């Protein structure tokens, strides 16, 4: 499972931080950070989700009020 985080779209509600510890508050920027991710395009961060964290990653994506988080299964199909 792969997660993509569009940091430019993020408005800093930090709901994702409450759902998955891999998201962290960045109070200086007023946005979340996706720890351990790779920036593949400007402000687009990608991370492979460990199997035991998929449930939390899905909740983090679902609670984002601006849909800045997308989740894809192993076949590349968007889950959230």
Structure report:
It comes from Natronocalculus amylovorans. One of its GO terms (molecular function) is iron-sulfur cluster binding. The protein is α+β, with helices and mostly antiparallel strands and about 80 residues long. The chain has one domain (about 1-70): Alpha-Beta Plaits (2-Layer Sandwich). It contains two helices and six strands; from the N terminus they run E-H-E-E-E-E-H-E. A four-stranded antiparallel sheet has the order 4-5-1-6, with helices on one face. The chain starts with a strand and ends in an 8-residue tail after the last strand. The model has no long low-confidence stretch (mean pLDDT about 100).
Topology:
Blueprint: E1 2-6, H1 15-19, E2 23-26, E3 31-34, E4 38-41, E5 44-48, H2 54-63, E6 69-72
Antiparallel strand pairs: 1-5, 1-6, 2-3, 4-5
InterPro entries: Fe-S_cluster_ET
Protein name: Ferredoxin
GO molecular function, one term: metal ion binding
Short note summarizing the structure:
One of its GO terms (molecular function) is iron-sulfur cluster binding. Keywords: Electron transport, Iron, Iron-sulfur, Metal-binding, Transport. This protein is an alpha+beta fold.
